[in-house]
Amino acid sequence: MRLLRPGTMLCMSRAAKRTARIVALLVVISIGLYLSLRLYLSYEAHRVSQVLTTLNGINIGDTEESALSAVERYGGYRWSPHDKSRGAYEYVVEVNPWYFGNLTGHRQRFESIVTKAVDILNANPRFRQVVGLRLWTAGGGIDMNQGRVERVSAQVLVEGKDEWLGGMWSLEPGIPDYVLQEYSSVKPPWPELSRYVVGWTNLNVDNGLGEGVEVWVTPSATNSESRAGRNINVSCLTSRVGCRTLCDLMPDAARYHKEHPEAGWGGSWEEQRTCP
């Protein structure tokens, strides 16, 4: 039998210790990066809550100053899409820590660097979800016309436990004609149709499918209708296991639906599966 020399054993012992130190250091760095990312996402989710609260406080007919305060506070910007009429424009506010593509094409600082980091995390999306790093984006818009607020909207999209979930609401002077036509055909008329409409929709996001709730409310909506239509549960953004249903993301809208079945949402809403 061949015996190792004492010097050889000493070298192996040193190599093993050095390897153990490197592994321990990598583990500590990985945990630190994970906790830092979780903390950052929690901070961004808190910003979403603040943005939604601010948007909820803006009313049709408010002056531009009220819109500007929200925009400046959360790093928003002015956008003038081609389909806007003369004298009309929009202020957009986004909270987008994962740097999803947005409708306006607005570029963000460090976008190319962050998107490369996100691509690395997405190399194993299942593992990313298991450790509670769920993709999401949120934002809102304030439509202006001749210096007055004409419309306020908000949207939250988040990876749920089994599918993407979306919550979207729009405060407008009146329910748009195309909405009235669409939902008058799928549900019997009810008095609330002129001030509160909630509907179900399919979602097709970058890396998956899902479902969402769309709500339209007017200034004549009751307090309960306004609250039901515009309350989005932002804890779904930081949930480690992920929210499972639209009722988790829009709890007041689901509750209002149960209390007012005649005002139920259209589409293929599967209440028994989605709302336990």
How is this structure best described in words?
By secondary structure, this protein is an alpha+beta fold. It is 40% helix and 22% strand. The chain is built from nine helices and seven strands; from the N terminus they run ααββααβββαββαααα. The protein is elongated.
Could you give a quick summary of the protein structure above?
Helices cover 40% and strands 22% of the residues. It is built from nine helices and seven strands; from the N terminus they run H-H-E-E-H-H-E-E-E-H-E-E-H-H-H-H. It has helices at residues 6-56, 64-73, 111-121, 125-130, 177-184, 223-230, 246-249, 251-259, 271-274; strands spanning 77-79, 88-95, 136-145, 148-159, 164-171, 196-205, 208-217.
Salient structural properties:
single chain; 276 residues; alpha+beta; elongated
Secondary structure elements and pairings:
Layout: H1 6-56, H2 64-73, E1 77-79, E2 88-95, H3 111-121, H4 125-130, E3 136-145, E4 148-159, E5 164-171, H5 177-184, E6 196-205, E7 208-217, H6 223-230, H7 246-249, H8 251-259, H9 271-274
Parallel strand pairs: 5-7
Antiparallel strand pairs: 1-2, 2-3, 3-4, 4-5, 6-7
Strand content: 15-25%
Order of strands in the sheet with most strands: 1-2-3-4-5-7-6
Q: What percentage of residues falls in helices of 4 or more residues? A: 40-55%
Low-confidence stretches: 267-274
Structure annotation, total helices = 9
Class from helix and strand fractions? alpha+beta
What is the overall silhouette? elongated
Q: How can the largest sheet be summarized?
A: 7 strands, mixed
Distance between the termini: 70 Å
Task: From the alpha carbons, calculate the radius of gyration and give it in angstroms.
Answer: 24 Å
The count of β-strands is 7
Average pLDDT figure? 80
> Order of SSEs, N→C?
HHEEHHEEEHEEHHHH
